[in-house]
Amino acid sequence: MERLYATGHRKTAVARVWLMPGTGKVTVNGKDLKEYFADHVVAEDVIYAPFKLTNLLGRFDVLTTVCGGGKSAQAEAIRHGIARALITFSPELKPILKKAGFVTRDPREKERKKYGLHGARRGQQYSKR
Predict the structure, then answer these.
(1) In 11-105, which ranges are E strands?
(2) Over the stretch 68-96, which tens digit does the pLDDT of each residue have?
(3) pLDDT one-digit tens code per residue, 31-60
């Protein structure tokens, strides 16, 4: 096994993920995981979740480039990419990852604002007097 590649998505965030045999080092956009997600506390747990679930923690180095969305969506996009790459590595992991909800892309995106409204659905307030 050389390198495994997968793409992860969540909302408008897209993550390209490469898994290589290693010690568990995670690099995001050329920076260390803790450095990139310094202001986001939960990101580390979200990203390591597929490895913890499949007992493969520390067996792969992760190299990822991520763009779009916020930090939370980016972390979940990386998780989605890691889950997909692990399925490529070992197809028997799919039921475990699918049951945890790591294989399904979260399709919820912000609805566009419509003309004549204040937001996507909020209308103007009616004043009787």
Answers:
(1) 13-21, 26-28, 31-32, 60-67
(2) 989 999 999 999 999 999 999 999 999 99
(3) 999 999 999 889 999 999 999 999 998 899
Report the 10 Å Cβ neighbour count for 105.
Answer: 14
Total residue count of the chain as it appears in this document: 129
Q: What are phi and psi of 14, to 5 degrees?
A: -130, 130
Triad 11, 105, 99: Cα angle to 5°: 140
Q: Which two tokens stand for residue 21?
A: 């045999």
3-state secondary structure of 65: strand
DSSP β-ladder status, 13-21 and 60-67: antiparallel
Model confidence, pTM: 0.88
